[in-house]
User: What shape does this take?
Amino acid sequence: MVSPVSGPEERKTADWEHADDAKCVRASRRGELAAFDTLVGRYQRRATAVAYRLLNNRDDALEITQDAFLNAYQKLDSLHDPKRFGSWLLRIVSNLSLNRRRSRALRRGASLEAWRLDEDAHADLNAPPSREPGPAQRASAKDLQTQIAAALDELPDMQRQALILFSIEKMPQKEVAEILGCSVQAVKWHVFAARKKLKDKLSDYL
Amino acid sequence: MSKDRDKLEFKLTQYLDGELSRREAVALEGQLEADESLREELGHYAALQGQLAAMATEQLGDVDYDAQRSDIMSALERKALLGERSRRPLVLRPWFAPVAAVAAAAVIMVSFWMIRSVGPARDSLVAVAILPATSPIAGAAMVSVEYPAAEGPTPLALPEDFRTPSALPPGTVMVSAGTVAADADDPTVDFPMWLE
Assistant: This one.
């Protein structure tokens, strides 16, 4: 592990391991990279997992995670409550992931408008590839996970994010609300709407 | 699907999440006993929840988190060296204003002491005004130090516009120093130096 120590007066990463997020954030603001390194170690797995769930692509997830940490470091001063670093970081991850999804769609030359107009493309992109009862019944657990991932990909942004953060990443609804910038009640309804759509879509497999 | 059905299904998911009160849960369990299709829906939601939970444990394969962490920190070090972090507005800490005022006054007093030791007897005046960074100008802190002539201290009045420097922005540190003749009618006439 890199220990970004540039002078004898600076503390090493290990010195920050037991410090809470708020202390690490304040030290990072003073330019102590070792403190920020601790925050990276603390949140990189969750950030990568969330990005992966939102993007369904490993390389994109790794890139977004790195960008999110760099953005977070540059904008640390705009974080009003240093205790909330984790939620704030995941909000950055979510926003960057959404931007990546949109730019990916544009790169494919298939805007959302075009998706709606092009029925064939719509069918190709949105329908689970093995929706027929025969193959589906034989699907292994891994195949089912693939079906769920594909169905997740089709959900509206807020519903997908709410479901991923709450049902997969097991975050408390309050924290999800902070990340999404909405109320807890709204999170409940987004999660429910997402579950209902998945349940209806995957009813043959459940 | 009717709204009532949606509400019922919402309750099912709340039940699975353990979000219902004891009373609500008992009521729902009564409905479940009487309604087979509702039990089936509950089974679907429970199975879906199990599958989603399983995705949480699915790892991202061969991700080298140590390498990722090193990459992030290397990129940050480069950025830090280049000074790319957003600049913070200067905010004076609470203790800074009085400490700076006293220090500035002390330095200037010593200077005047030295000047007096070689020149004619004159009253000296050093005044420092600190305008807090976050409070209105009306709350400006001011420290004035009067250095008296040999015969004893003489109260010196500060110029009115010095007490209420309304044209200056918050956060300004002003130091004014000067000497005034001991017999002058208006002790404010000789203020040769303003630092802002």
The radius of gyration of chain B is 37 Å. Residues 3-57 of chain B form one domain.
